[in-house]
Write a structure and sequence with these properties.
Elements (H helix, E strand, L loop, with lengths): L1 E7 L11 H7 L4 E4 L6 E4 L12 E6 L7 H8 L5 E4 L9 E3 L2 H5 L5 H13 L7 E5 L10 H7 L5 E2 L18 H5 L2 E5 L14 H8 L2 E4 L8 H4 L6 E2 L5 H15 L2 H8 L8 H22 L1 H4 L18 E2 L12 E2 L1
Parallel strand pairs: 1-2, 1-3, 3-4, 4-5, 5-6, 7-8, 7-9, 9-10, 10-11
Antiparallel strand pairs: 12-13
């Protein structure tokens, strides 16, 4: 089925037709074309006000922390969207579809191939030939990076090739990709900008996973589905606002660096769990089912019929957000009522 789509409030150079959800749906019976003037579907993100009043099907795509970009959260509460996808918690409702960014950044077409390649990659690596740690970032606007950088720098030198705290030549100048650069290290400091709302996760954990690095991480990616994808025992977490957490992180890293056998055992753990493929396939299939249902229920609208009014009577009381702005990096999150 051919559908005309457009998008609003995304970052520069965003390519809708190259996202995993459009590509996956294209592999399963849909053909998409960009059409700004008369779209069947519009995708909305967080970078701007949402003032649309037209008749197109409206899909919210959550890629950012809704504590920072609350406009899209308010639109969700207003029942503005016909479907919401992206960085979401597990919600048993046809209007919501969890599609985390680690799916977009990975090999979603052949997840088992990706899983086996990475697990085998770390299983056979000699950590004696790897450098200590890196931190790649363009900023530390939210104060999540410098505290852990300072804390761990007394263990060994931490390379920072990005714009933040630059202390080595950039990997671009060396002719390396980001992933080739990361493969040289045991650890990578890769926090989210914020701890995030329930269900929020970016590509940062997957970038670490695909290069074998042990992630030193601030964030979530730990609900019942995420925990079946990523081996939580191979992630070192920290909270820059909690002294005990910072000390525990330092102790863990120092202990590993002082014990080669323990470091080898920790590093060579599987990155992905046995259930990872099943969860990724489930999430993709859930996307297709909910998108199919959305299109089927709006087929008259798509066919330009003005006789069918969309049913807006869905009871949203079970999945609306009860939003409270948290302090930075606390565990306070958007709650559901």
């Amino acid at each position: 089925m051919k559908l005309k789509i457009w998008y609003y409030n995304f970052w520069n150079h965003f390519k809708l037709l190259e996202r995993s959800f459009t590509q996956y749906l294209s592999d399963n019976g849909y053909e998409f074309e960009l059409n700004e003037s008369n779209p069947d579907i519009i995708f909305f993100n967080s970078f701007g006000q949402i003032n649309y009043t037209g008749d197109a099907i409206k899909i919210g795509y959550v890629t950012e922390d809704m504590h920072r970009f609350s406009g899209i959260y308010h639109k969700i509460n207003e029942n503005f969207f016909d479907l919401v996808i992206g960085n979401l918690p597990i919600i048993d409702n046809n209007k919501f579809c969890k599609h985390p960014l680690y799916i977009n950044s990975g090999n979603y077409k052949e997840p088992l191939l990706m899983i086996n390649q990475i697990n085998n990659f770390v299983k056979d690596r000699d950590t004696n030939n790897l450098k200590f740690c890196n931190l790649i970032a363009s900023h530390d606007n939210y104060g999540n990076r410098k505290p852990i950088l300072d804390k761990l720098s007394d263990i060994a030198f931490i390379e920072c090739p990005g714009k933040f705290n630059t202390n080595v030549e950039s990997f671009d100048d060396k002719g390396l990709s980001k992933r080739d650069y990361l493969k040289q290290f045991i650890f990578t400091i890769c926090p989210e900008n914020h701890f995030g709302h329930e269900g929020y996760t970016s590509e940062k954990l997957l970038d670490a996973a695909l290069t074998g690095c042990i992630p030193i991480y601030l964030g979530r990616t730990d609900d019942t589905q995420d925990s079946k994808v990523f081996n939580q025992n191979r992630i070192i977490r920290y909270n820059p606002d909690n002294e005990e957490s910072m000390n525990e992180c330092h102790k863990k890293v120092l202990d590993l660096m002082n014990n080669k056998d323990k470091l080898k055992e920790f590093y060579q753990q599987p990155i992905f769990n046995d259930e990872a493929e099943d969860i990724i396939k489930y999430l993709l299939n859930d996307l297709k089912i909910k998108f199919d249902n959305l299109i089927e229920s709006n087929i008259d609208k798509i066919n330009k019929s003005d006789n069918i009014k969309q049913d807006d009577s869905i009871d949203t009381s079970k999945f609306l957000f009860n939003f409270e702005e948290p302090k930075n990096n606390t565990t306070e999150t958007i709650k559901y009522v």
